[in-house]
Design goal:
By secondary structure, this protein is an alpha+beta fold. Helix content is 28%, strand content 24%. A two-stranded antiparallel ribbon has the order 1-2. Strands 3-4 form a two-stranded parallel sheet. The longest helix has 12 residues. The protein is extended.
Length: 78
Amino acid sequence: MRAHPIPGPDAAARRLRGAYAGAKPGGDLLNRIARPVDDGKLKPDVGTILPLREATHAHELIQTGHTRGKIVLRVENS
């Protein structure tokens, strides 16, 4: 994982710092993360479930900044 600084126009004047961190998880790591969810020990806070065809609406909801919980897009079999 490597951090990259996030610049801001007045960040230095306000003594603020930011960083973006990213990782490339492999299958083993993803399985370890999923295990507590599968076991019912970790429950994600799902606020809204929408069909995939409403992905644009999901983005609009996120941009309002007033959503609670995660927005899930459901992929339906055809």
